[in-house]
């Protein structure tokens, strides 16, 4: 089965009450080649924000994404269409590092009436790694520390969607035999909860990532 490892970049909003919007989607497609998993294709697209079209200086500093990049981009609905077409018709697992990208993706798709039926079989690789290494629930390892733990060199630029997706995919490739992927689907009953602050190495008070509790635990089907 194909595995899609994706990453999102969002606008930086440092004040309570502000929202964040997706401005880049990057993904790596992993498949079995000659008996071993490897990255066989990639996807990258900038996204034009619709609520706050003008990027803040913090956003450009944090991500490296410029106003020109998003001005020339398609809106989220068109990018999601292209992304879903790129993933293909065969059954796939969607994987991300941590829960935040899934929550942001579903929130914005619902906000803009973009179909979400393609968001299936979603797995949190951060959580799966934590289970393998028996980390406590509150120990949410960042991408770079996880790469260091596995002695995988980081390539590219951190906080760029495609580079982060490819680096995340390298973790999946290395731990492929130990990971247990789950089939699931979005819950129609899932509700978006109030803002929770997301912290990074450089910024705090980034409200895009919280929204805790949007997805209940899904069991194998």
TrEMBL record:
GO terms for molecular function: exonuclease activity. It holds the Pfam family RNase_T. This is Exonuclease domain-containing protein. Residues 2-181 form the Exonuclease domain. Keywords: Exonuclease, Hydrolase, Nuclease. It comes from Cohnella soli.
């Amino acid at each position: 089965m194909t595995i899609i490892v994706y990453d999102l970049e969002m606008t930086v909003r440092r004040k309570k009450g502000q929202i964040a919007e997706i401005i880049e989607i990057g993904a790596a497609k992993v498949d079995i080649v000659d008996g071993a998993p490897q990255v066989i294709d990639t996807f990258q697209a900038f996204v034009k924000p619709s609520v706050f079209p003008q990027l803040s200086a913090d956003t450009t500093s944090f991500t490296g994404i410029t106003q020109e990049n998003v001005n020339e981009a398609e809106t989220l609905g068109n990018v999601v269409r292209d992304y879903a077409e790129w993933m293909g018709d065969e059954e796939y697992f969607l994987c991300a590092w941590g829960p935040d990208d899934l929550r942001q993706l579903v929130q914005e798709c619902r906000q803009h009436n973009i179909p979400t039926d393609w968001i299936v079989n979603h797995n949190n690789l951060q959580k799966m790694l934590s289970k393998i290494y028996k980390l406590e629930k509150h120990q949410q390892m960042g991408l770079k520390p996880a790469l260091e733990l596995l002695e995988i060199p980081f390539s590219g630029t951190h906080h760029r969607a495609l580079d982060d997706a490819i680096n995340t995919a390298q973790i999946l490739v290395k731990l492929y035999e130990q990971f247990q992927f789950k089939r699931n689907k979005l819950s129609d009953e899932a509700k978006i909860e109030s803002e929770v602050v997301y912290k990074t190495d450089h910024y705090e008070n980034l409200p895009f990532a919280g929204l805790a509790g949007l997805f209940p635990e899904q069991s194998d089907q």
